[in-house]
Amino acid sequence: MTTAADPVTVMKQQVGKAAADRVQSGTIVGLGTGSTTAYALQYLGERLKTGDLKDIQGIPTSFQAEVLAKQYGIPLVTLNDVDRIDVAIDGADEVDPNKNLIKGGGAAHTREKIVDALADQFIVVVDSSKLVDKLGSTFLLPVEVLPMAMTPVMRAIEKLGGKPQLRMGVKKAGPVITDQGNFVIDVKFDSIDSPAELEKTLNNIPGVLENGLFVGVATVVLVGEIKDGQPVVREI
Ligand code: 5RP
Question: Which of 41, 61, 89, 117 falls between 20 and 30 A from 72, CA-CA?
Answer without folding.
Answer: 117
